[in-house]
Amino acid sequence: MGMLDRIKEKVADTVYPRRCPLCGAVINSNERICSRCSKDIEFIRRPICRICGRPLYSCHCRKGDYVFVRNVSPLVYTKSAKKGIHRMKFNNSPYSCTYFGKLMANVVRSEYLDCGVRFDCVIGVPMFREDFLTRGYNQAVLLAKTVSEDLELPLLSKVLIKNQKTRPQHTLSFIDRRHNIEGVFRVVAPELIRGKTVLLCDDVTTSGNTLNECSLTLLEAGARAVYCVTATVAVMSEMPAIKAAAFGTGW
Ligand SMILES: [Zn+2]
Ligand SMILES: [Zn+2]
């Protein structure tokens, strides 16, 4: 980089400081995230579960628990990842969305595309219309958009809808989570889904019930297969409520 470029970058950094996509702290142009977050962030490394996408040490799923083929995620839902998801959800932070979306696209490449899986479309987990109108955007669809642009795949943003208000999943016990989300999604244009292999995107996997219910709805509408990608997955130590509810039940 030439002297002039460095000066330009310095000026841009001062006028529009770059921010950590996770916590929002000002960072230098050569940093992707701040030093504090880089100590906490945990990339998911092998061995991973080939169903839920969690590191094997925290997987409790069994064959047949889910109707989607697989979920993959780049990150564990650690404190800093949680902050980044929160920024994206409630502060409409586009750089957080880009950060997570690019990581998701990379993991889709290495775990799916490089293994021969081909997708016809990308879909984000939908929000109930009223919730969408209150917030003004749906972070899962924004992530799906980033992933679809990065992988040059079509985004279907209005085909899957959520037609009921539900209680926030994280406030419920494991059993209640499943009931809370049952039957709340609908495919409004099955002709766009029929025979298609779908890449379903969301921000966090906790119990996997939301991904599973969306997948079931898509499969019932005629989708050939559903694969999932989420920005983060919660592991047991990060989800005490689920741990308490599911301990010993083979969650
Ligand atoms: Zn940070
Ligand atoms: Zn698993």
- Summarize the biggest pleated sheet: 5 strands, parallel
Mean pLDDT, as a whole number? 88
Unreliable spans are 238-251
Total number of domains: 2
Provide the CATH topology of the largest domain.
Answer: Rossmann fold
Work out the strand percent: 5-15%
| Count of discrete alpha- or pi-helical segments spanning 4 or more residues | 9
Describe the structure.
The strands form 2 sheets. Strands 1, 2, 3, 6 and 7 form a 5-stranded parallel sheet that branches. This protein has a two-stranded antiparallel ribbon with strand order 4-5. It folds into 2 domains: 1-40, no CATH class; 42-246, 3-Layer(aba) Sandwich (Rossmann fold). It is globular. The chain contains 9 helices and 7 strands; from the N terminus they run ααββααβααβαββαβα. The protein has helices at 3-15, 35-40, 79-90, 94-111, 129-135, 139-151, 174-181, 209-220, 240-246; strands at 71-72, 75-76, 121-124, 160-162, 185-187, 197-205, 225-233. The longest helix has 18 residues, at 94-111. The termini are far apart. α4 crosses α6. Helix content is 38%, strand content 13%. By secondary structure, it is of the alpha/beta class. One zinc ion binds at residues 49, 51-52, 54, 59, 61.
